[in-house]
Amino acid sequence: MPTRATHTSLLSALRPQNQDRLYDFYRDLRDAEDLYWDRHLNAWVATGHAVVSNTASDPRFSSVRYPDIEAVSEELRPLVRVLSRQMLYSDAPDHARLRALLSRAFTPRAVAALRDRISDTLDQIITRAAPTGRLDIVADLARPLPLAIICDLLGVPEEDRPAVSSWSDPVAAAIGSSRLDADESRAASQSMEEMLAYLRELLTRKDGPPAPHTLRALLDTGTENPDQDFDELLANCALLLIAGHETTTHFIGNAALALLKHPQAADQLRDRPDLIPAAVEELLRYDSPVQLMLRRARHDLDLAGRSITAGQAVLLVCGAANRDPAAFPDPDVLDFQRPAGRHVAFGYGPHFCLGAALARLEGVTVLEALLTRLPDWRLDGAQPRWQRSLNFRGLTSLDVAFTPPSEHHDPGTQVSATS
Fold it and tell me: pTM for the full model?
C-alpha cells in the first residue's frame, strides 16, 4: 500500500463550492503532486498532461474497469457484466476486434451524410424557440440533438427515442459515480437490461433490409459463436447509443456557457467563422465533457517515479491534464488561435473516441447556428448548475434569452456546418 503523505481526495471535486471552481481545484492538486495516492478512492490520481497521456496509451496498463465482477454489489452486478463486454473497458485483442466492427457505423461517408440532418434539426429547434426569446440550451438543444443524430446513424426509429434517453440517464449516472446506493444501482441495471431487450428486438426485426450504416448492418460479423457474439454486439450497441449522445450533450452545454461568459470570444467567432473548427477543439480542452479515464496496472511497475502495484487503479483526470500549463501555456485563457495541442477530451491512444468525427461535426454546426441565429443571447434565470459526477462534466440546465426575430425574418433559413 502506498505510504505517501495525505492529499486532498479527488472526491472533493463533488463539493458544490468546487464544482464552480473545478479547474482551480485541479490546479491545486496538480501543483501539489501530479500523481498521488488517493486513499478515499483507493486509487492513484494523475493530473499532469504528460502522465495522463502517457498512461492512457501505455500497454502496461489495462482498461478493464471491473476485474472482479463478484466484488461489486449484487444490485450493480447485471450492469457491470454488460459494461465489461463493451469496447470501452476491453483490452487487446478484444478491443481492436470490437473497434473494427463498430467503426463500420462511423465511416466518414456515414458521418458526412448526417450534416444536413444536423442542420435541419437545429433549424427546427431554434425556429421553435425564436418567437419566445427563450431557450434552455441543455433541455431544448443539447439533449435532443445528439440523441436524434446517433439514433439516425444507428437506425433507431423516432418513436423509440424517448425510451432510449430514459434508459441512458441511469446508466450514465452509474458510470459517472464512485458511490451508488442500492436503489441507484438497481435502477441502472434495470435500465441496461431494458435497453438490451429493446436492441435485441430491433436487430432481429424482419421488416425490411437495413441501410448500410444502421445497427443491423453490424450483424454480419461472420463469427463462429453467434450467440456469444450477439450478446457482445448488443452490449456495444448500447455503448454507442449512450456515449453517442451523453458526452456531446455535455460538450454543447459547456461550450455555450463558456461563450456566454466570454462574449469577446463569441464575437470573434461571429467575425471569423473560419475559426469555428479550431474553437471546437479549444472548447473541448477548456471544459471537457469527459473528466476521467481509468487504467489498471497489469503488473508491478514504475510510473513517473512512483511504484505502482499490480492491480492498482490509476484515475487519469482529463480535465486537469487539459489545463496543464506544461502542455498549454496560459491554460485558463480561451484562445481560438492557440497552437495545435493534444488535448485528451476524446481520450488518448488506442481508446481514442470512436465518435470524435461526429462530435466535432455536431459541435461546429451548433456553434455556427447559435452565433448566427442568436446574436444577442445572454444568460437568463438561475445560475447554471453542474451535474454531480466525477466522470462527466455537464450542466443540468442553461437558460438563455435573446431578442425574438422581427416579422420579416425568415424562420426557415437553414444553418449549415462550416467546412
Answer: 0.92
